[in-house]
Structure to design on (226 residues):
């Protein structure tokens, strides 16, 4: 008698059920008070899928997931609710490709322009003729990443000023939060609405689990007549 094999859709749903049991959705706060959404393995606390901005903000730098790291305690266990943008490592990786690009621009410029001044040389990075030879400058640049690491609000995608050493948004009092938001020109009503959303957000520390359909086979009742 051939071995019974579950239908393919049952196998898929079992896999989804395992993931729902072993993983949970979380929102993690980075060193600048920004929120990122992902799913983590319940056993290790490590992200197990893509990490992306959460809460309506946009990431101008398109931060690669490789440089979004969960900080660890001394014993190696993840610090709950936190994530870190590894700017030093990111800058080091960009610097090599940017140095190569600078050399290509330099070589192309010396070939294209036999006579040039230091002022001309300073414009080579924007020269359309040289860009056709060297290609576009690597993005983001080292300079942009260094500014972002220092708290540049535009490059961080934030609508208010932050500093790496500032109190984290989760620790801010109502007064601190409202004052911080209103410095960007928002009204008191808008600040109050954002505060309510902020508190509701902090109180919800995980996304609801996936609801799976009932996989139990239906059993027909036998009806006795007479």
């Amino acid at each position: 008698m051939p071995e019974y094999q579950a239908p393919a859709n049952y196998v898929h749903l079992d896999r989804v059920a395992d993931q729902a049991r072993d993983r949970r959705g979380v929102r993690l706060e980075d060193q600048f008070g920004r929120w990122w959404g992902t799913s983590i393995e319940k056993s290790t606390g490590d992200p197990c899928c893509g990490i992306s901005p959460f809460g309506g903000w946009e990431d101008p730098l398109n931060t690669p997931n490789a440089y979004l790291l969960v900080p660890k305690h001394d014993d190696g266990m993840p610090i709950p609710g936190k994530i870190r943008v590894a700017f030093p490592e990111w800058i080091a990786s960009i610097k090599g490709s940017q140095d190569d690009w600078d050399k290509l621009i330099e070589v192309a410029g010396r070939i294209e322009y036999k006579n040039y001044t230091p002022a001309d040389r300073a414009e080579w990075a924007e020269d359309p003729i040289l860009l056709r030879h060297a290609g576009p400058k690597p993005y983001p640049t080292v300079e942009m990443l260094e500014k972002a690491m220092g708290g540049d609000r535009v490059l961080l995608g934030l609508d208010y000023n932050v500093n790496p050493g500032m109190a984290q948004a989760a620790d801010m009092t109502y007064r601190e939060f409202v004052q911080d938001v209103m410095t960007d020109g928002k009204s008191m009503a808008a600040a109050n609405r954002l505060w309510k959303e902020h508190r509701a957000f902090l109180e919800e520390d995980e996304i609801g689990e996936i609801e799976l359909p009932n996989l139990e086979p239906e059993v027909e009742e036998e009806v006795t007549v007479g």
Strands lie at 23-29, 35-41, 52-53, 68-69, 84-85. Residues 172-205 form one domain. The mean pLDDT is 76.
